[in-house]
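Next up, sample data.

:::
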Amino acid sequence: MKPKTGDVRRGKLAHGEPVSRLFVPCDWCGAVVEKWPSEIEGRSFHFCGQQCRGAWSGVHHSRKVNKVCCVCGQLFSVEARRFKRTGALGGNFCSISCYARYKGENYSPAWNKGQHIWSPEERLRIGAESRARWQDPEYRQKSIEKMLVARQSKPNKAEQRLEAFLTREFPGMWAYTGDGRVVLNGYVPDFMNTNGAKAILELFGDYWHSGIDVVWHRTELGRIMAYNSLGFRCLVIWEDELNDEVALRRKLKSFIKGKKGE
């Protein structure tokens, strides 16, 4: 039997609680729809779907007024509710292009589709200011820490191999710090000693740390000297040394005993 307006469907939920659903007419198409009591209480209008709701709102809520574009002077129609908005949808412009033209003439001396065009002089000034800020150790330290936290840095495959080797051969002696938990004057050490000794292990790969064009602080000697100036001993381990664990174990033992200063 087809349900009619005012009918009630009674039933029970899975845990046995009794429920009731009511049948009401759609205020747009007139079809009878089934609703929960909570969907009916406090509401003056009911609809069978979003399509009927949108059609009804277009007739009853749409109130357009005529406006004159403040840029080109063209007469256009706009919904009154847009007056509460800002930007191109605020009811003062007939199109996005007029809004962009208004913004360009009133807010920016150089307007290129919404993007400011920096002059060569401005670029030089901004670059000089950035380099000057970077010379401040406190600013550099905080900036690097924020970048590493945002990147959520994790050990790469070579660092994972070295970490597993250190855990197996020297348990509890070295901790991975390449995720940015420790920053020393702008440098992020890969591994640090956990037994109180100011010692650092750096793992170098051929791609970033070898060749004639490598900057000084990326070279083996440059990195060792940088850490020595901060009071830390540093041992550089090259990625290909991970393939010979016997030689690597001997190199690390020598470094730990202090026979090799850097």
